[in-house]
Amino acid sequence: MRTQLDVLVRTALARGAAVPAFTCYDFTTALAVVEAAEHIGAGVILLVAPKTAASPVGLRLIRALRGLADAAAVPVSIQLDHASDITAILAGVAAGADAVLVDGSALTYEENIQLVRAARDAIGDPGIVLEAELGGLAGDEDRAFALNASGLTDPGQVADFVARSGAQLLAVAIGNVHGRYAGEPRIRWDVLADITSRTKVPVVLHGASGLAAQDLAQAPASGVGKVNFNTELRTGVLSMLQMQILAHREDGENLLGILDLWRETVRAFTTASLETLSGRANH
Ligand code: 13P
After folding, report:
1. Ligand 1 closest atom vs CA 233
2. Nearest CA-CA partner of 92 in 52, 141, 38, 135
3. Which one of 5, 230, 238 would you pick to mutate in the ligand 1 pocket, going by the greatest count of ligand atoms within 8 A of its CB?
4. For residues 92 and 62, is the Cβ–Cβ distance under 8 A?
5. 166 vs 130: CA distance, rounded Å
6. Which of 96-134 are b and which e, b meaning 16 or more Cβ less than 10 Å from the residue's Cβ?
7. Each residue of 183-193: pLDDT tens digit?
8. Beta carbons of 8 and 19 less than 8 angstroms apart
9. Annotated catalytic residue 142
10. CA of 247 to the centre of ligand 1 (A)
11. C-beta 208 within 6 A of ligand 1
């Protein structure tokens, strides 16, 4: 069922859980995320990466995800991830995205605020939820390289940034990176505590791939209401394909079997993430 992303996240936080968000490059992955969420009975977020949205089939994919979300038995939101172009944001929203991460993190502080406000003005509809990002998160959204964290969010800017940008969720840089961590990830819980003491909007943790389950389990109690996963899901699907393609080719060009395994891989990852973020997993 369609749901407003901030309502989904705040409801989860109120019961001590965070909502996982998964990058969906294709419909099969999205189907499996929703299947797993329905099985558990919890809400999820389907992320559309900017390169996907800008591709020739991006808007069609968003429309298809809209249909999937509307028909789901659990709350599902569709979010345009890391968007910084107003025309692309409007196209994504018109195609069916419920929420947008308006990403001005590469801009100056003032330009970042202006971009979020410009997106709000351009969209008009107050039901479309805007997340903003403060601090510089290292890494590429679609390709994983070993990285060290950089550009921590400055807690001193948080209250002013949220008030003036109108952001309804805040993505932070607290030692997290997109892609693979060069060494042991070191999440700066002290910086996170400082951030959450200065704002009431839910905090979003990007770059969850590679973080320890204990860290993820601890996140909701620290004010993190949404956690974004991409790389680990890709790794799981690609490893499965590497192991299974040849046998399925020899088994009568069995694409259906591969798609079943694809969904099984994504369902397992989604289930584990939902359980970890709701404190239901045993570590
Ligand atoms: P990872 O690829 O590190 O899981 O990050 C995903 C993400 O933050 C999507 O916005």
Report:
1. 4
2. 52
3. 230
4. yes
5. 8
6. bbbbbbbbbbeeeeeebbebbbebbeebeeeebbbbbbb
7. 888 899 999 99
8. yes
9. no
10. 31
11. yes
Q: From the CA of 254, how far away is ligand 1's center (Å)? A: 31
Residue nearest to atom 9 of ligand 1 (CA): 228
| Residue 142's pLDDT band (cuts 50, 70, 90) | confident
Q: Which of 6, 81, 98, 215 is catalytic?
A: 81
- Determine the length of the chain: 283
**Residue 245 is which amino acid?**
I
Instruction: Summarize the annotated binding site for dihydroxyacetone phosphate as residue ranges.
Output: 179, 207-209, 228-231
Strands 44-48 and 146-147: unpaired
Which pLDDT does position 151 carry in this prediction?
81
pLDDT digits (tens, 9 = 90+) for 42-81: 999 999 999 999 999 999 999 999 999 999 999 999 999 9
Q: Does the CB atom of residue 179 touch ligand 1 within 6 A?
A: yes
Whose alpha carbon is nearest atom 8 of ligand 1?
206
Report how far ligand 1's centroid is from the alpha carbon of 23 (Å): 8
Among 97, 66, 36, residue whose Cα is nearest residue 268: 36
- pLDDT of res. 88: 96
> CA triplet 225, 281, 71: central angle to 5 degrees?
60
**Do strands 99-102 and 76-83 pair parallel, antiparallel, or not at all (unpaired)?**
parallel
Q: Is the pLDDT of residue 200 over 80?
A: yes
Q: CB neighbours (10 Å) of residue 251?
A: 11
Domains in the chain with CATH codes: 5-233+266-282 (3.20.20.70)
